[in-house]
Amino acid sequence: MMNRDLELLAGLHPRDVAAVLSLGHTVALATGDKLFRLGDEADHLFSINRGRIALTMPMAVRDRDENILIEERAAGQTVGWSALIPPHRFSLTAAALVETEVIALPRAALVEYFTGNPDVGYAVTRNIATVIGQRLEVFQAMWLREMQRLVKLSYA
To answer: Is the pTM above the cut of 0.70?
Structure first.
């Protein structure tokens, strides 16, 4: 994975990319390992080096809890943006679909770095806003499909 391909750090100068990445550490996940769970404190932001992460939401389906797939994220993509967005709690559960490696970036270190480098903080925040916007589109599409299903049922 080339550092310039990381959506979190898009548009940054290579020296800024290296500086941000130096704040983190690598985490290896086996297939099925949980990176974080819904409701956990979001104290790290993650950039996927390799592998795939499933983002799921627990839902009651026919009297049992199921983890419903919301979206999959792959190498170069970001998960855990809740680390930078109050109230700093994960809104989904993240699990490795295959052997996966992520860079875990601590919120405290990022905030400190962004305070001293506001241009980098702005660029990363803009990139996070793009990721959040993509998630909103996913939920909007899911909601629309469900509303269409309910309308069809009510006219059947």
So the answer is: yes
